[in-house]
Each structure stands twice: as structure tokens, then as C-alpha cells.
User: What shape does this take?
Amino acid sequence: MSSSTPLNRAADSLKRAKSALGGKIRSLRGSANDPRGSGNDSGRRPGQARKVGKPGKLHPAAVWAEAAGTAGDFLSPAWTKVRDVWLRYVWPVLAVVSLLGWVVLAAAIGLWWAGQAWGWQEAKSAAMVAFLLFLLAIGFIVGRSAYGVVLDLARTRVAVGDDAVGSIAVSNVSTRPLLPAALELPVGSNTAVFHLPRMKPAQVHEDLFTIPTARRAVIVVGPVRSVRADPLHLLRRRVMCTDPVDLFVHPRTVSLGSSAAGFIRDLEGMPTTELSSADVSFHALRDYVPGDDRRHIHWKTTARTNKLMVRQFEETRRAHLAISLSINTDEYESEAEFEMAISVAASIGRQAISEQRDLDVLTQKGPLRCETGRNLLDDMTRVVGAPMRKTAVDLARNLSDAVPNASVVFFVVGSHVTATQLRTCAASVPPGVRSLAVRVQPGAAPSRANIADLTVLTVGDLDDLAIVLRKAAA
Assistant: This one.
């Protein structure tokens, strides 16, 4: 037998345990018989006799730990094989029996035992009928699935309020007719059932379905399961036919238009006070200095003054938007207000991406992907609000550190955020960066107010977002 077999490993473990136990016993006996005593004798007065006690005993916990380790080494391979057999062969068989089936089976066993114990022929007959029903039910679920199923969603990304339409195409891929059956389609926490008629070979049956999208969510559609069951539903066999598909229900967004975002400069960027010898924003003329680019010489002025003059430019920068979206639900009055805040942030971010602006979106749980509008809306769909200790003020401080080169900053907050908190948010913004706070309050009239250098925009409806942004640009 190979030295790597479980029996040899168990024998080696037992030998090591036996050697360890023997060594401990010998050491204890030696300590008890040693006339010089142990380290504890250092506190004994000279001339005082040392007390010789009984031999020490092994602690039961050590013995049990060694025994458990040996048993684990011996039983681990066997347990792994038993678990694999259970999951591969036994559990699929037991999972076929429904709750009603287990009740009927338990009743049949009880009736048969009662009939044997007290001689009740009626109980035996009832038990035999129950067992016969089980045998007949097996005939309804055996056999291989001969369905070819294709799950097709017309769109895997829709907005709130839009219906998601899909279809299930089922074909008979066998050479014989198939009896009527049923298909199950899990949609989130619900399950839709499609009944299939009797299908001839190569026949295709198609069903259309519509998924309502009342709220923002990621809905798992599928996998499609073919279900075989007996008429009494004692046994139910499910066979997976497709893979699950994620349906993204994006938050509702509105188009702002370039006029609504007038505070963002066009491709020329936002001018700064730093001067440059080559840029787009013209500032003034200055004397020529050796090394200047001759393309920037202003020849008309040079001819009039009789000396070389070159153009001086203001250094420009491209607009970089940063959005701070608070997901602390304690700062919102209701769930509808929180959803509106997500829609506001998504609308502003989507507009910035469509205008090819640099964008960063940050929440208390970290940044969101902003490479494309699709990535942004996907991450907006996954956002989950919760009560937390971090407030909009803490998020504003993190934003100034995470996006130091931002030129325009948005604070999207709820109606419970006070003016003092907004003033603190604005104080965390570096000088020269334009900051705006969008305060969401359903039903409120669109308005604009100023708190120091911070522009506060109140939005009562998502359709009012473009209006308040035009007021901010005025």
C-alpha cells in the first residue's frame, strides 16, 4: 500500500500521538522523582524538605484535540467522497419530491406501520395506494429534456416607466412528439409560467412577455426552467434551459440642452489668471522675446510700432465636472425624494458626457464609473441608499481631495440638509471652482438662492431641472 493512502496517514498520526503522550508521561514522572526539584523550588527556604506530590495528569483537552486531528485526517477523504456523491446523485433525486409528496410519503409509511402493528387492512390498502401513486408519478418526470429554448430581451437597459419586452422561443429538437409541458421564467422575486402545447418534431412555439418597470432596479431574468410534474404534483422535475440575464432599469433622466448648461464653457475652456504664450483665449500684446513662436507675431502692430509684438494668451482649462451625490437616506424626506436626487445627478452627468466633458461622480460608498453614459447609468441603477454616519458635508470634503482639478462642482442633496451644512460644503471647495448645490424637494417651486459663493438651486420636479440651471447660468 502506498505511503500516501489514508490508512497509512492515519497510522502515522497515531504513532506521533502515541510518542507525544509517552514523552509527556515520562517528563511528568521524571519531575516527580527528581530529588533536586523543579523551578518552583527556588522559593523554598534552605533546609526545608521538598514535598513530593502525585504524578501529573494529561489535560483531557489535549488528548481530545489530538484524537480529533487524527480522526479528521482519517475521515476527510471519505467525507469529501460522501459529499460529492450526495450533491451529485442523492440531492437531485430528493429535490424532485415536492412538499405534498413528502407528506403523502410520510403518511404512507405511517399507515403501513399501523396496519402491520394492529392488523388494519384498510391502513395497508391506503399505504399501497399512496406508493402506487408515487410509482405512477415517476413515469411523468423521467426522460431527457428535448426542448431548445432561446430567451431574448429586446433591450437589457430601459428607463423607469418603460416596459421591457422579451420573448421565449421553444422548439422540439427530438424526433418524436412531446406532451404538453410548462416553462418557468423567474423575474426578480416573481415567477412567470408558460404552458407549452403538444409539439411535433421541429415545431417552434413562441411566447411574448412584458416586464413592468415601476422603479429603479437590476432585475435578474431567468434562467428558463422546463418543469415536469405529475397531475397530483407529488414530484416536480426542473431542468435549466438558459442562462440568467440582467435587466437594468435606469433612473429617469431629462435632457438639459446646451443652453441649460451655459455655466460650462465650450471647447475653449474656462479662462484663468495664469498667462501663456500659446493658447486659445487671447489676452494682450507684449514685446517679442527671443524664443517666442513667430506664428504669434502680430504683424499689424509690429508695422505700426516698428518693433516686434507677439500675442499674449490666458491659459485655459477644459471644464471638469464633479458631482457629489449623497446617499444618506436620513437627509431625504422620502424614497421618492431620494430617487429624484439620483435622477438629477444622472441627468447632469449624462449631459456632461454627451458634451465630452471630464466627469467624476462620488457617493459615500465610493466613485461611480463615468467613462460612458451607459456605465454611469448602470452604476446609478446599483446605488442603494441607507442611513449612515457620513453626511453630505463629509462627502464634500472627500470630493475636494478626490477631484482636485474640478472646475464645476455639484452637491446633490435632500431637503433635510440645512443651509449651515451647505455653507460648510462650499467651504471645502478650493477657490476659483464654481460650486452649485441642487436641493431636491418634491412639490417645491423651482428657485435660486446664494449662500456666499455657493449657488443653491431648489428642484421640485425633475422637469424643472433645465429651468433652474438656466437661472444659474443667467
Summary: The chain has five domains: 1-29+59-96, 98-139, 147-250, 269-317, 320-473. The chain has a mean pLDDT of 81.
